[in-house]
Amino acid sequence: TGEVLSIPVGDNFLGRVINPLGQPIDGLGAIEAEEQRVLELQAPSVLQRQPVEEPMQTGIKAIDAMTPIGRGQRQLVIGDRKTGKTAVCIDTILNQKANWESGDKTKQVRCIYVAIGQKGSTIAAV
């Protein structure tokens, strides 16, 4: 087409399951995008980002005590198969529910779970 690859984005995508092109695959109907964004966008440099100053409570005491996750930072979770990576991530996301429902913007955290290379059946189970 001669155009740069772009994807639809917006708050309406939160809580939905989409494919890499932004198309819904959760059976809940179409998603109205707020705008299109270029896929290969240059990320801001470390100096341009806001500093991470407070921890995000995962609700998992071992993680919170030994390797705290900074609130607002991206987190890569890697490890061997069948070691509980997905369970830890989903538990962390679920543990943010009370903060979100409080309505306090200073406590609310938007959690986006990205599963690359997972089977469709695995994603459906999540």
Automatic annotation (TrEMBL):
SUPFAM superfamilies: P-loop containing nucleoside triphosphate hydrolases. GO terms for molecular function: ADP binding; ATP binding; proton-transporting ATP synthase activity, rotational mechanism. Keywords: ATP synthesis, ATP-binding, CF(1), Hydrogen ion transport, Ion transport, Membrane, Nucleotide-binding, Translocase, Transport. InterPro entries: ATP_synth_F1_asu, ATPase_F1/V1/A1_a/bsu_nucl-bd, P-loop_NTPase. GO terms for cellular component: proton-transporting ATP synthase complex. Residues 59-125 form the ATPase F1/V1/A1 complex alpha/beta subunit nucleotide-binding domain. It is found in: Membrane. The keyword ATP-binding applies. Gene3D superfamilies: 3.40.50.12240. It comes from the Bacteria. Its main location: membrane. F-type ATPases have 2 components, CF(1) - the catalytic core - and CF(0) - the membrane proton channel. CF(1) has five subunits: alpha(3), beta(3), gamma(1), delta(1), epsilon(1). CF(0) has four main subunits: a(1), b(1), b'(1) and c(9-12). Belongs to the ATPase alpha/beta chains family. This is ATP synthase alpha chain. It comes from Corynebacterium ulcerans. The lineage of its organism: Bacteria, Bacillati, Actinomycetota, Actinomycetes, Mycobacteriales.
